[in-house]
Inverse folding.
């Protein structure tokens, strides 16, 4: 299962543990995950590593009742698209939050959580989930 | 300037074909297409085959050569084309470009998917590959959930309702009742959809297209030659394609598909037509919200008006712009690699006046719209009926 590949987990620590993205100093745009070239400036772009803010707000959300392979035991769970404070959008599960508080515009902050543990031979994958903050 | 026309088509029934294998499906569609074009198989010079996920669904890759072999057409070149759920549409476009280039005069374009060999969970995982594995699927996103995120946003920005989305499913099931190749030839009601249970809120089971086995094949021919070979070829007057980020989070907006807008705009420019000139369209309704987005992004309705339009019957078979007379992906079925080719087949039949009880009246110009993933690929084709030999 690709989710639990050990080299993949190892490569993804900065992204999945610390939301490390990058930033183009030429067009002042933030990216997450990191990009290899700036799509706005292409060769003129100047990308530098930059951590993404840990807080933002929900742009859209859904309650998932039918899960994909490996998430069957977690239903129902919430997924949201979040706009972080640097305008970067990120898709994440929303956990540890009352259902009625999960709505568009709600403020959220990043947590560190287990994401996937479906391959008995593979690595347990950790990363980000978000919760609603009052 | 060379141009390309369709001279024949073959389609299997769409549905759960437990009695048929991948290769039997594509062979049936291929044989039917060659018979329908009334040509010798050996006049076909190349094959383009759309297939999304055979590796995960049946453990088989190398589909191009497999199709050539099943058609009995070795040793002509055969190429698999993959663009997720737009594989069929992009295969069609590849075949068109090959004929336009002058490399070939006659090519076959196939599309096939065998999806019921594995469990629904495994099929869903395979389909998930159309999204972004690292930032979407990894977090438990499914295709219904990605479209649900678009649907919620559309509801909140434009007041689109769950009942309006349900109306798409009701209309498409109604159309499919008159399509003998459709998976679901039965009518449903708004209540059925509303009571069908959430898969990913606000989308319910009956907002979603099904898992389907099926295959489709078209025979394409250079237009001057087509007029000699065929009584009523259908000319493809525009073929366009656009790309966007795999992940939803990379899009400028959640309530429009930029790739669809760009492909449609370029197609209208090429065909020297406008949205109002189109008599009917087969659009990519993998979910009901996708049909609403498509009718807005192609330009049939203003942004935000798509939900109201379907509710008012504007997209019904007898409405101002019939959408998905075949029943669409929702009710005809969605064997992902075959879908884009099957849309072209429906258009071919409609423009030849051969669509029987689901015939759109006075259909002269048709449009197809095929999407990969949640909008990372969009393919648009425009077709026109032309006269041939008498």
């Amino acid at each position: 299962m690709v989710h639990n590949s050990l080299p993949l987990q190892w490569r993804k620590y900065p992204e999945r543990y610390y939301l490390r993205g990058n930033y183009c100093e030429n067009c002042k745009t933030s990216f997450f995950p990191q990009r290899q070239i700036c799509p706005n400036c292409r060769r003129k772009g100047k990308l530098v590593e930059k951590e993404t803010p840990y807080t933002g707000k929900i742009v859209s959300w859904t309650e998932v009742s039918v899960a994909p392979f490996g998430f069957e035991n977690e239903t129902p769970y919430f997924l949201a698209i979040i706009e972080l404070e640097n305008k970067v959008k990120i898709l994440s599960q929303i956990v540890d939050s009352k259902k009625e508080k999960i709505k568009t515009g709600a403020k959220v902050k990043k947590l560190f959580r287990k994401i996937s543990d479906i391959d008995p031979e593979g690595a347990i994958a950790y990363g980000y989930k978000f919760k609603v903050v009052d | 300037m060379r141009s390309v026309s369709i001279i024949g088509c073959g389609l299997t029934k769409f549905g759960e074909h437990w009695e048929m294998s991948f290769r039997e499906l594509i062979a049936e569609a291929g044989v039917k297409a060659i018979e329908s074009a009334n040509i010798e198989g050996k006049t076909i010079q190349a094959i383009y085959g759309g297939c999304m996920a055979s590796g995960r669904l049946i453990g088989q890759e190398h589909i191009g050569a497999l199709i050539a072999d099943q058609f009995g057409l070795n040793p002509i070149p055969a190429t698999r084309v993959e663009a997720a759920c737009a594989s069929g549409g992009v295969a069609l476009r590849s075949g068109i470009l090959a004929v336009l280039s002058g490399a070939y005069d006659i090519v076959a374009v196939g599309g096939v998917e065998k999806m019921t060999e594995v469990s629904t969970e495994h099929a869903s995982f395979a389909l998930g590959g159309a999204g972004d594995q690292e930032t979407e699927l990894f977090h438990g996103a499914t295709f219904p959930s990605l479209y649900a995120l678009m649907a919620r946003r559309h509801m909140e920005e434009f007041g689109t309702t769950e009942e309006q989305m349900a109306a798409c499913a009701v209309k498409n099931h109604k159309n499919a009742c008159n399509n003998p190749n459709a998976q679901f030839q039965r009518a449903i009601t708004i209540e059925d959809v509303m009571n069908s249970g959430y898969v990913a809120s606000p989308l319910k089971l009956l907002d979603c297209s099904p898992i389907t086995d099926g295959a489709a094949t078209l025979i394409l021919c250079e237009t001057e030659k087509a007029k000699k070979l065929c009584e009523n070829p259908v000319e493809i007057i525009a073929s366009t394609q656009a790309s966007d980020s795999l992940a939803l989070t990379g899009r400028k907006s959640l309530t429009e598909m930029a790739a669809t807008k760009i492909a449609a705009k370029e197609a209208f420019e090429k065909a020297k037509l406008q949205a109002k000139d189109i008599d009917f369209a087969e659009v990519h309704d993998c979910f009901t919200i996708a049909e609403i987005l498509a009718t807005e992004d192609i330009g049939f309705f203003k942004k935000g008006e798509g939900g109201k339009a379907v509710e008012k019957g504007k997209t019904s078979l007898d409405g101002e712009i019939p959408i998905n007379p075949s029943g669409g992906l929702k009710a005809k079925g969605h064997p992902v690699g075959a879908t884009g080719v099957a849309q072209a087949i429906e258009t071919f039949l409609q423009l030849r006046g051969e669509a029987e009880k689901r015939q759109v009246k006075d259909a002269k110009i048709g449009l197809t719209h095929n999407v990969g993933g949640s909008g990372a690929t969009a393919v648009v084709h425009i077709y026109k009926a032309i006269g041939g030999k008498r």
